[in-house]
Design goal:
It is a single chain. By secondary structure, the protein is an alpha/beta fold. It contains 13 helices and 17 strands. A six-stranded mixed beta sheet has the order 1-2-3-4-5-6, sandwiched between helices. Strands 10, 11, 12, 14, 15 and 16 form a six-stranded parallel beta sheet that branches. The protein is elongated, with a radius of gyration of 25 Å. The protein binds nickel (II) ion. Nickel (II) ion binds next to loops.
């Protein structure tokens, strides 16, 4: 099966969902292509469905964990996962099998094992064409009703390769569902072949542990391709460089009940360092939440707009960074409203949460402000300039599922620490999400104190 370098493929955002108990372990790795939300959502949904069904069968309530899968999301689509021994395990791994022109093909291999032995293996390739918005697995490459004809060609491939006796029809055992299960994994290659992993001893359901890749020249299949299949084939054989989706960093949704999320938050900006930080985040496709000061937004409205356009969350950090409990009521309101107006004017965004300066608030202040108060549970104390390495290790080691990590985009050391923080959190198995994403878009009501996601 062809396997492309995920790092050379446009805009992939790695995902990891993992959980482990003494009797049970799941490690699922896949990648959602940024800016191709339909494909990303379909991949997320298929993985979630497989994982939750497995957890249900084991009688386990799904709670995503971290520090389970060596390499975290960094290994996504690169190396298959080695399952933990002994227990009931489910692994899902991905590979990028096609990235050409506007078409991307990602393969998911799902292996259900008991005591280390595979019990069930499912393989699917999902294709998406960003030019047309079409999406489908390998079965969608063919016109409905042509499956039996394609099976004949695959059987011929098995016989020609000496994998089936002359005159035998090893695929006749397949039910219509079995045929579709086999075709769901069909890969179209740059050399204009179709490759299907065919079980050596296929069950009626089209599954089997040991498989052999059967190669059929695509020209023999030409009468059976759907219009979508023909377009995928054209893309596969073209020498087109895959499109680089210049999508916003944080545009695609993430389900924080399914993967272990954590939020990095930056206070006090925008500063002269923020534009550089946005580039680092874009390169790593890492979403963040920025608690900005109104005064600084008014000074750098373009950076605030850029932050919003990258899909990051923007929250209110008051107009001039005063300690709110020290101000009379009307000034407390003015601090919030002026900042709210500056954020709106610069970015078009209505900030939905407040980070009180110095983390200082009291019941009077809470009652005055129509926003939830988002503080933090991991304080890097980066403003004391402990050095980038210390900031990185405090952020990475201090995080747990749902953490909200406090940083400041006004310190060079902090910005320099961000690549290590993002990579380190992902290596532990975390998915980065905005604070609102942790609450599925609906933050707790005004006056609430939030220092952690709901998980
Ligand atoms: Ni501050």
């Amino acid at each position: 099966m062809p396997r492309l370098d995920p790092d050379a493929t446009a805009g992939l955002v790695p995902r990891l969902a993992a959980m482990s108990t003494p009797e049970f372990s799941v490690v699922a790795r896949w990648a959602t292509p940024q800016g191709m939300s339909a494909l990303g959502n379909e991949l997320d949904a298929r993985v979630a469905q497989a994982v939750r069904a497995f957890a249900d069968r084991q009688g386990v309530a799904w709670t995503p964990g971290v520090d389970i899968a060596a390499g975290g999301v960094e290994r996504t689509c690169k190396q298959p996962t080695v399952p933990a021994p002994g227990a009931a395990t489910l692994t899902i791994d991905c590979s990028i099998v096609l990235a050409a022109g506007s078409v991307l093909g990602e393969r998911l291999v799902t292996i259900d094992r008991v005591g280390g032995r595979p019990r069930d293996i499912r393989r699917t390739v999902l294709y998406a064409d960003t030019a047309t918005g079409e999406l489908g697995d390998g079965t969608g490459l063919f016109e409905p009703g042509t499956e039996a004809r394609v099976m004949d060609l695959l059987a011929e491939g098995l016989r020609a390769g000496g994998r089936a006796a002359a005159g035998s029809s090893p695929l006749d055992v397949l039910t219509p569902e079995g045929r579709r299960a086999l075709l769901a994994d069909a890969v179209l290659t740059a050399s204009d072949d179709l490759v299907v992993a065919v079980p050596l001893a296929p069950s009626a359901a089209g599954t089997g542990v040991h498989t052999v890749p059967v190669v059929v020249p695509a020209r023999l299949l030409a009468p059976f391709f759907s219009a979508f299949g023909a377009r995928v084939r054209d893309a596969a054989v073209s020498a087109d460089v895959p499109i680089r989706a210049e999508a916003p960093t944080a545009a695609d949704p993430v389900d924080c009940t399914f993967v272990a999320c954590v939020s990095i938050t930056f206070d006090d900006g925008p500063s002269s360092l923020t534009a550089g930080l946005l580039e680092i985040l874009h390169e790593r496709r890492a979403p963040a939440t920025f608690y900005v000061q109104g005064l600084s937004v008014e000074r750098r409205p373009g950076v605030a707009l850029q932050t919003a356009e990258a899909g990051h969350e923007i929250g209110n950090h008051t107009w001039a960074h005063s300690s709110l409990p020290l101000l009379p009521d009307d000034q407390v309101r003015a601090e919030i409203e002026r900042a709210q107006a500056a954020i709106r004017a610069a970015s078009g965004i209505e900030a939905r949460s407040l980070r009180p300066p110095y983390g200082a608030f009291d019941d009077r202040v809470r009652a005055l402000i129509g926003l939830p108060f988002v503080v933090w549970d991991v304080d890097t104390n980066d403003w004391r300039s402990p050095g980038s390495d210390v900031v990185t290790s405090r952020a990475v080691e201090g995080a747990e599922r749902g953490s909200i990590i406090l940083l400041h985009d006004t310190h060079e050391e902090t910005v320099a620490a961000v690549p290590g923080i993002v990579d380190g959190l992902r290596a532990r198995g975390f998915t980065l999400a905005t604070v609102s994403d942790q609450f599925a878009g609906t933050l707790p009501p005004p006056g609430s104190i939030v220092s952690h996601g709901p998980g």
